Amino acid sequence: MPTINRYVDIDTVERESRKDYIDRHSPFIHCDTTAKAGEVLAVTVKMGNEYSHPDDFDHYIANMSLYNGETLIARADFIAGMLGGQGMKGHATVTFNIVASGKKMKLVAQSYCTKHGVWESTPVEVDVAE
């Protein structure tokens, strides 16, 4: 089982290089925190908030997955070069359009860096109204 790295608030980290490392590998979820049951909810997952990630052929974001609790509900796979290729950096971003269900959704994103493994977002709760 791979180690899952979790986001740490970079404002609490002293070294700039450590802030860069944590932020650029962490997926961030952007979506409404309320939804209507049975309707589509757009959930955007973006890699890095302040720092961008390399897009080298041996070091890039290979995929991003979205979970509701422990259930995988969406996944996007990427290839090296999608952000410009060797020597380039960027924020891999994907928007998943999911159908809201249940009374509450606990959304968690995971990403996989080919060099530094699996990284997990801070959970985002979505209240679902009927």
Helical amount: under 10%
- What do the pLDDT scores average to? 92
The coarse overall form would be globular
Biggest sheet architecture? 7 strands, mixed
Tell me the number of helical segments per DSSP (H or I, 4 or more residues long). Answer: 1
Count of strand segments? 12
**Class derived from helix and strand content:** mainly beta
Radius of gyration of CA atoms, rounded to a whole number = 15 Å
Q: In sequence order, what are the helices and strands, one letter per element? A: EHEEEEEEEEEEE
What is the CA–CA distance across the termini?
Answer: 38 Å
Strand content: over 45%
* Stretches with pLDDT under 50, minimum 5 residues: none
Notes on the structure:
There is one protein chain. This protein has one helix spanning 16-25, and strands at 4-6, 27-30, 34-36, 40-47, 53-54, 61-68, 71-77, 89-90, 93-99, 104-113, 117-120, 124-129. Strand 6 and strand 7 (71-77) form a beta hairpin. Strands 1, 3, 6, 7, 10, 11 and 12 form a seven-stranded mixed beta sheet that branches. 8% of the residues lie in helices and 49% in strands.
Question: Which properties best describe this structure?
Answer:
130 residues; mainly beta; 3-stranded antiparallel beta sheet; 1 helix; 12 strands
